Amino acid sequence: MATITIKIMTHDRSRCAEVTLPDSFTVGDLVFQCQKRWQLDHSEIFAVRDMGQNSRLEENDSLSTAGVRSGTELQIFPLVEGGCQ
Amino acid sequence: MNTITPTASLPELSFELREDRYSRQRLIVSWDQEKVAQARILVAGAGALGNEVLKNLALIGVGHILIIDFDRVEVSNLSRSVLFREDDVGQPKAVTAAKALQRLNPDICVTAIDGDLECDLGLGRIREFDLALGCLDSIHARWLLNRACRHAGRPWINAGISASVGEVCTYVPEFGPCYECGMTQQMWQQIHQRRSCMLLPRKLPSRTIPTTSVIASLTAALQVNEALKWIHGEQHLSAGEMLLLSLNPYTLSSFNTAAKLDCLAHEIYSPTISVDAMPTEISVAELLARVSDATALQLDFDVLESWLCPNCGEEPVGRRLSAELGKQLLCLQCKSERTPRLIHEINSSDWLAGQSLAAIGVPARAILRVLTSSGTQYVELTR
Fold first, then answer.
1. B115 and B151, same domain (yes or no)
2. Domain tally for chain A?
3. Which of A8, B48, B90, B260 is the most exposed place for a label (fewest CB within 10 A)?
4. Nearest by CB to A85, which of B47, B248, B257?
């Protein structure tokens, strides 16, 4: 099983980690782990973007399918839904 | 030292400044007030974001604005809503905002729909506008607006806010990702929670999101700026490119989202056959008769055809499912649990074919899918 070492941070840079993960790990798994370990607001919805490629990653893709390699910097950000109230 | 001597006298230039409401913005080199005055913009949602968006659109003189919102003004809106006053509490947001805009700028034409996106806005009405601005507060409402704009072939600009984050994203009907392409499983779950296990709509309390007028006005300004780029035909965000604004720490970044090739929202309802009728004036059967080789009307929404009670039998209903919000699953006669029978396709031999389009929940200016032996035809009600 191949592993990769990536850097992941929150959009507000309040949390940051360098982690080694199997490349079969999905983007959705990564979001779930960040929410859980960093105690991010569970009522908010988060997505991940590749800072180098400047693109959002699809949650069902594995890290390897999403083109994430060792050394890639990822950012987790909220998909905000407020506006009308 | 070289000196430059003019070879001919320069003509006297006349800088005549037309002092009117728009004279300062006319000074902007790329600005075209005529284009702004001719622009037609639909604003969905008149809350915190919508107020700021509408205020900006009115001040710059966007000529035609349609506001749609089903909500009423509440006291808690007043801290973020520049168009509402304490006296407005309890009044419809769309109508109240339209009146305030008309006072702010009597040059412009503002109309309001005190209704909801799902039931009261026909796709033909959306097609009258150059673009739509989504100032909504739920994933479900954004999903609805996205589908409507995509089917109507109109671009829309989504915005969302939280306490310190604002997002703006442009969606174009012909290409690129749409809002639905970027929906996560959690977002789909939120939409599905709006239906019970029997598929009946559930009224869920809307989530109260912490926010201030600061993030609302900043995000709305970006959203309106993006609209101005559209109006002027200037370079705007690419389709599906999201602008992410953060107040803590200050950052503004943008990034792309990929389109999903199998996304169900990517169908443009065009070209259309026009039928000069209001939904109250024409039945399903009459509509089908206007289209050659028509086999069925295929609706974008579910119709509650009937209730099936194990003891009392079938009770016909024939109304749009969302109009049946909060109806009991128990039979009114014997109190047994009854089952809803839902359909979204009606052919000319169904009993529902005798009903008017309005009775089954089709709004004015709808664009409808009619299945024929040779494929799908789109029929637009012109009234």
1. yes
2. 1
3. B90
4. B47
Task: Give me the amino acid identity at B34.
Answer: E
Among B225, B210, B171, CA closest to B53: B225
Taking an 8 Å cut-off on Cβ atoms, the answer to whether B182 and A56 are in contact is yes
**Number of domains forming the structure of chain B:** 2
pTM of the model: 0.91
Q: How high is the pLDDT of residue B200? A: 64
A18 vs B: CB within 8 A: no
**A35: domain range?**
3-78
Contact list in B for residue A81 (CB cut-off 8 A) is 137-139, 142, 160, 207, 209
Nearest CA distance, A77 vs chain B (angstrom): 9
Label residue A6 exposed, middle or buried (CB < 10 Å: 0-12, 13-18, 19+).
Answer: buried
Report the share of chain B in percent with pLDDT over 70.
91
pLDDT tens-digit readout, B130-158? 999 999 999 999 999 999 999 999 999 99
* B278 and B251 assigned to the same domain: no
Its domain, for residue B63, covers 23-255
Whether a cis peptide bond, with omega within 30° of 0, leads into B316 is no
DSSP output for B262-277: T-TT-----SEEEE--
The model's confidence at residue B305, banded by pLDDT at 50, 70 and 90, is very high
Q: What is the ipTM for the molecules in this complex?
A: 0.91
